[in-house]
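Sample 3 of the quickstart, ligand fe (ii) ion:
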Amino acid sequence: MSPLPLAFAMPPAPPTDFRRALYAGALFKLAPSEASLRLAHEVHEVLAEAFRDVGDPREAQFRLPAGEHLERLGRVRQVLGREARFLEGARAVLAAAGQEPGAYALDTLRLRGILDRGQEIAAAAPVYFAHRDTWYANPRAQLNWWLALHDAPEEETFTFFPEAFERPVPNSSSTFDYATWRAQAGWQNPRRAASAAYPTSLVPLDGFQERGFACRTGEVLVFSGAHLHRTRPHTSGRTRFSLDFRAVHLEDHHRGLGAPDVDNRSTGSTLEDYVHPATARAGGAA
Ligand SMILES: [Fe+2]
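Result:
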């Protein structure tokens, strides 16, 4: 199989070509824009406020009991979901890349905090599962916009298996039903049910090329949610933070456009919980 196009550059100028390339598996790492830097800065401010008494948020995991650290991150996530300026910030990032924000439905903004040695925490195991987002009942047209909140070397980010984009991989997505999962777990719920399904690949991925990337503050990685990817465990001595949001171009979705769906067996659809353009309102990001 020939390697997929890894553009890692400016997207094609016509917005439709950009989306078409993404649905075909292209990965883009966009240079920082005024919008992405502003959003990163605003998230930094919320993080800094949440951990002001213990100093650098990236080192707070060593200065607070685990439960309190998690609780404070939860509060930061509530602010990101509650305050409309963050959803507007995400829409500005779309606009800076030439996309029409009003054409998209957006999921909740997600703050990721990948702990130093987080892989040693049993309850965090699903964080590191290799997966496609489509195995979690996300639409084929879903595009992921991943914003670097700080510089990070390749060892602290995540990886793709581009060769698996169009190739089926045995997986446990048949265990995932969105309505069931939402009742049992939901996004970042510390009281999730132990039986909640977290689909993952069921075979070793040694046969696939694994592609990683380093990033600088404000860079935005854009990729199809159908890409097989996984978060890297790390021992960097600090927490890696990033922000991401999921966007679905509604007209594309309704026309049946999107990435190939080669091995997804999940049921339901997350799209019902996205913020749709017609329903966007102040404070309506949750
Ligand atoms: Fe993912």
